[in-house]
Specification:
- The protein has 14 helices and 12 strands.
- The chain has 338 residues and is α/β, with parallel strands linked by helices.
- It has one domain: TIM Barrel.
- An 8-stranded parallel barrel has the order 1-2-3-5-8-9-10-12, surrounded by 7 helices. It has a two-stranded antiparallel ribbon with strand order 6-7.
Length: 338
């Protein structure tokens, strides 16, 4: 199982060097309060082995052509170590924050990824650019605007998904899947991976051609006080995600649909401070791995070793790098059988 780190907004050069030294496989940057691409350029420049990727960049905030240039350049600058993680975001953000069109997100993502591949094929293989879809059209590529091919080929694409339709699109069009952190092992097993398989079969691919990279909610601490704080913050994060109607399917699978309804109502009233108390131990342990540091690697492997190919730790609380070093080393020595 590969283990990745997530950029937290601090000195990306120092963090990238530390992750590479400690044996991590990759570094992800998200599009939250920062541009997800700029820190990865620095991370790639100051490392030799570490993969760098977006988890995620908002696809629908950009045209495929714009994103194709950015990803092509990062793939070139990194020597083939760039991973393009794409997400659709939800309708209010796309329309009201980015002022971009929203419609049929799964169909749009399918076409978006296909458009990227058509553009990269024009640059890397000399194919005539003639992409015509329902959402995007790319038919003009003069030599002056054509970048040099990347020796390693185009970057791998991973698509973020929760629902079955988007997950199937990921299997059919992408090289990997980024399940949302608001995902349980049961949901992965019963809903996510079967949808991936349907997508793979439709495209004539196999699971060996595909990577599942999971951002894993984790609560740990060296002392009882640290662990209690980690658990409290993780409950709040689960409650926040649980209030999003788009993620309701995960709760419904477990029979917790009423919890989702209550969380949504509280969020609309701005009552964020009381939502975490609704996340009981059963819900907490379904969404997060809760364990002391010396038991964490074994518990992660027990629950997710047969389901995912790589993980990164998602903590809703502050922690220090030294806590994770032995966990990473242990995870990378456990034989991975999918």
């Amino acid at each position: 199982m590969k283990v990745d780190g997530a950029w937290g907004g601090s000195d990306v050069v120092a963090q990238a060097r530390h992750l590479e030294q400690e044996g991590y496989d990759g570094l992800w940057a998200s599009e939250a309060g920062h541009d997800p691409f700029l820190p990865l350029l620095l991370a790639a420049e100051h490392t030799e082995r570490l993969e760098v990727g977006t988890a995620v960049a908002v696809a629908f905030a950009r045209s495929p052509m714009q994103l194709a240039y950015t990803a092509h350049d990062l793939q070139s600058y990194s020597g083939g170590r760039f991973l393009l993680g794409l997400g659709s975001q939800v309708r209010p953000h796309v329309e009201r924050r980015y002022s971009m069109p929203w419609s049929r997100p799964a169909a749009r993502m399918r076409e978006y990824v296909t458009a990227l591949r058509a553009i990269w094929s024009a640059w890397n293989d000399g194919t005539k650019l003639d992409f015509r879809g329902d959402f995007y059209t790319h038919t003009l590529m003069p030599p002056f605007f054509t970048p040099a091919p990347v020796p390693s080929g185009p970057p791998r694409i991973l698509v973020a998904a929760v629902g079955e339709a988007m997950t199937t699109v990921a299997g059919a069009t992408a090289d990997g899947l980024l399940p949302h952190a608001f995902t349980t092992a049961r949901y992965l097993r019963e809903v996510t991976l079967p949808a991936v398989e349907r997508g793979l079969r439709s495209a004539g691919k196999t699971r060996d051609d595909f990577c599942v990279s999971h951002l894993l909610l984790t609560a740990t601490g060296r002392t009882e006080e640290e662990l209690a704080h980690a658990v409290a913050e993780t409950r709040r994060q689960i409650a926040f995600y649980g209030s999003t109607p788009s993620y309701r399917g995960v709760l419904d699978l477990h029979g917790w649909g009423e919890l989702g309804t209550e969380l949504t109502s509280l969020s609309r009233d701005g009552r964020w401070e009381v939502m975490g108390a609704l996340i009981d131990d059963e819900v907490l342990n379904a969404f997060a791995v809760v364990a002391e540091p010396d038991r964490l690697a074994a518990e992660i492997h027990r629950r997710y070793g047969a389901l995912v190919d790589r993980i990164s730790f998602y903590t809703a609380y502050e922690t220090d790098d030294e806590l994770w070093t032995p966990v990473v080393k242990e995870l990378r020595t456990i034989p991975h059988h999918r």
